[in-house]
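User: I'm writing a tutorial on reading structure tokens. Could you give me a worked example: one chain, its sequence, then its tokens, then a sentence or two explaining what the tokens reveal?
Assistant: Sure. Here is the example chain.
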Amino acid sequence: MTQAIATILAQAGNRYDTNTGAISVPIYQTASFGHPALGQSTGFDYSRSSNPTRLVLEETLARVEGGHKGFAFASGMAAIDVVLHLFKQGDRIVVTEDLYGGTFRLFEKVFRPLGIEAIYVDTSDFVAVRKALKLEGVKAVFVESPTNPLLKIADIRAIAKAARESDVLTIVDNTFLTPVFQRPLEQGANIVVYSATKYLAGHNDVVAGIVVTDKPELSERIGFYQNAIGGVLGPQDSWLTLRGLKTLPLRLRQQQENAVVIADWLAIHPRVRRVYYPGLPNHPGREILDREHSGYGGMISFEVSDPARIPQLLAGVKVFTFAESLGGVESLITYPAVQTHADIDAESRERLGINSRLLRLSVGIEDMGELIDDLKGVL
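And here are its predicted structure tokens:
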């Protein structure tokens, strides 16, 4: 019987330890494992290669994604780093232009000097993506959708189809919508990546990254680099991420419910110039989400009329916390131009719309009225 995502996640780790019947998978806090005899193994030898707690997390995420195999890393950046090790000097990758600043830094400061070139395009413009895929040396397309922080929507199915026709891999950062709301592998993507620090773990208490692959050949290569480089997720953090996954659908439902109301309220506020939220009727790409996906998420960005008031606004919030990161149960507010996207040069930020007026909200699960009252007080 095919189980629903909510059931798979709620049951994650249950019935794994058949010796004790533990409902919650144990934390196997060990570096090494004993061998039954010469030439024999329990399946676990050394925790860099595999650990039972981490394996449950990896298998759970592969299952909910409909993928071949999952891999857990010490951060989202470590996860993307391993994926980029699939490529070599001279390869080119088509990349979402308004992506997370840390990913931009990885492409520009780490992999460009190694001879791997990122070609930045607006991945919400399918025509531009298709044109870029035909450029010489392109081996992959890296799509962030919705983008961070402007929440642009890419047609993943159309991009993946065009990429296959050009013999190009499709990699999707699905951090914002998670497999509950968006399923890139089912739409034709080859690899999905996450900062599991965000919605998957969901409590601002762990840093983690995930990669899920669609076929054995990619699994073998990612598995090799995971073991060889060693940036793996430890058993304690694996357990915390598993615990977070159990309530992921419930948390997302409340975060989205709050976000829809807040976005509608911001959209008519006299001191707000523009609101970016995929659930708004006029948001570009909403029809793609309605057709292909099952939710809009809990992230909102908006521009204030007077950027000079931003320091006062950030200092004045009482329910929202002025902090980086996102996806936790606590609501956060961030100033992308000087925080999450500071590694992108000022001219590019301005061109993309990551300007001095822009604020980003990660909407949590608090009382909706108190969140709006908080914003009302500072706006």
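What the tokens reveal: The chain has two domains: 5-245, 248-378. Residues 74 and 231 are 6 Å apart (CA to CA).
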